[in-house]
Specification:
This protein is mostly beta strands. It is 0% helix and 57% strand. It has a single domain, classed as Jelly Rolls. The protein has no helices and 14 strands. Strands 1, 2, 3, 4, 5, 6, 7, 8, 9, 10, 11, 12, 13 and 14 form a 14-stranded mixed beta sheet that branches.
């Protein structure tokens, strides 16, 4: 959860709202030299294997100090397939697949304003992982393709890094709005 450089990150169930959209919130405050990042996360009760994962979402503001996304995850990144939007790159989507803690393939694609609503799709098969944004194939990976069943998660969490997610932005609450999710085998 970005617990480096003085950042103390937690997930708080009070930061999750369910209505016409699933809304996850992140706030960052300062306490002395510490950054307190209070984010949110939801996780499926069941695990998934190969198939197609589709969701529609947007972030409220692309501010430094945040990471928002939808992804698959199994313990120790045995399976991890991420579609993330980081606050310090307002028009980027980061697509990464992991097969263990050090075996991964990562690609960032640009040109997708995070504050606009986008349709995201991850196609996970035994020999590849494909990522789509608004119906357009943007990434095709064939290395480090995982195979273990994994949970699907949505979250938004705080960072305080000069690189990943950016340095903390104190004050404004940031949100990710998820309006749909669908899994097809």
């Amino acid at each position: 959860m970005g617990n480096i450089n003085g950042n103390v990150g937690t997930f708080d169930p009070k930061n999750v709202t369910i209505g016409s959209d699933l809304v996850l919130a992140l706030t960052q405050t300062k306490n002395g030299s510490q950054i307190l990042s209070s984010g949110s996360e939801v996780i499926t009760k069941q695990t998934f294997t190969y198939g197609t994962f589709e969701f529609t979402s947007r972030v409220s503001e692309a501010l430094s100090g945040s990471d928002a996304g939808g992804f698959l995850y199994a313990t120790n990144s045995e399976t991890e397939i991420d579609m993330e939007q980081v606050g310090n790159k307002a028009d980027a989507v980061d697509c990464t697949n992991w097969h263990g803690l050090s075996n991964f393939q990562d690609t960032q694609v640009f040109g997708f304003d995070q504050t606009n609503t986008h349709d995201f799709k991850i196609v996970w098969q035994p020999s590849f992982v494909d990522w789509y944004v608004d119906g357009q194939l943007v990434v095709h990976h064939t290395q480090a393709v995982p195979s273990a069943p994994a949970y699907f998660l949505f979250n938004i969490w705080g960072t305080n890094s000069s690189s990943w997610g950016g340095t903390a932005t104190i004050g404004p609450t940031r949100y990710i709005y998820i309006s749909s999710f669908k899994y097809t085998k």
